[in-house]
Design goal:
Length: 283
């Protein structure tokens, strides 16, 4: 989810990571055709061969934690491992089933972009964020690739509901595939945000701006992005068995203002999985 971001063409070299970063240098580079191990993915932000307008200002604590701490890597990978276990142990529905995932800071890691904002003192602009998305340089969130592979292997599909503008879907799709994710028009539905998603919020049926798209996947009315002019349609109803994101509004009919944490906790690490992101959010 993107609420507080801004522009950049990024190449980030994380400071302060230990000597193990050598093997991570290849990790997350645009154009990498095959996924790497989770131990390497956890350091995906360590080095990227991209250009960066990097200034001399210090990193904020939130960005430093996201990009340099072992705590972040441990929590992110641990959350996905819990989700993997839940998928493998659940009784699979007879009907088509899907895991709905956010993209930013859930599947794709944009922390290098945030580093650029901090070190140059820049702030969010819609145009700047769009330029970053178009650069297709986001890396993978630790643990995401293995989880997606397991869902598909178990017979499920992936619904990617992002608040990136729908006009940027093609760039987002290419960025995902560049990391070797086995996504196709048949097994994955990418849905960027449109004005219809915003105006659909009525505080009754739709409480947040992803609820309309979730309902379309469930009902078989999703207008998924069609890579390479694919003719594949998601015109069958799908059972949503799990939701994963870095923001509480990545969950059905939940808002930051009115979320009942006690209710969320009853499904946390069962059907709802929440990844850490101190850099930005709906808060």
């Amino acid at each position: 989810m993107r609420y507080l971001l801004t522009k950049l063409t990024v190449a980030f070299i994380a400071v302060g990571l230990s000597a193990g970063c050598t093997s991570a240098a290849k990790n997350g580079i645009a154009g990498e055709s095959q996924p790497v191990s989770d131990s390497d993915r956890s350091l995906s932000i360590a080095t990227q061969d991209v250009t960066l307008n990097k200034g001399d200002l210090p990193l904020s604590n939130s960005v430093k934690w996201q990009t340099m701490s072992k705590e972040y890597q441990t929590i992110a990978r641990g959350t996905y491992q819990l989700a993997e276990k839940a998928i493998m142990q659940m009784e699979k529905p007879a009907e088509p089933w899907v895991v709905v995932m956010d993209i930013d800071e859930t599947v794709l890691d944009n922390s290098a972009y945030q580093v650029g904002l901090d070190t140059t003192g820049e702030s969010y602009s819609k145009a700047g964020w769009a330029n970053w998305v178009k650069s297709e340089k986001a890396t993978l969130t630790p643990g995401a690739a293995t989880f997606i592979e397991i869902v598909l292997r178990e017979g499920g599909k992936i619904g990617l509901i992002t608040n990136r503008d729908a006009s940027l879907n093609e760039h987002t799709w290419r960025n995902l595939l560049e990391h070797g994710l086995p996504l196709t028009a048949q097994n994955a539905c990418l849905l960027g945000r449109s004005q219809a998603d915003i105006t659909a919020v009525d505080n009754e049926s739709f409480l947040n701006d992803k609820d309309l798209r979730r309902s379309h996947i469930a009902s078989g009315n999703a207008k998924c992005f069609k890579p390479n002019n694919s003719t594949v349609t998601w015109n069958k109803s799908h059972k949503i068995v799990m939701q994963i994101g870095d923001n509480i509004e990545d969950f059905k009919q939940v808002t930051q203002e009115h979320a009942d944490v006690d209710v969320v906790l009853t499904e946390l690490n069962k059907t709802l999985f929440l990844l850490p992101n101190p850099m930005y959010g709906s808060w």
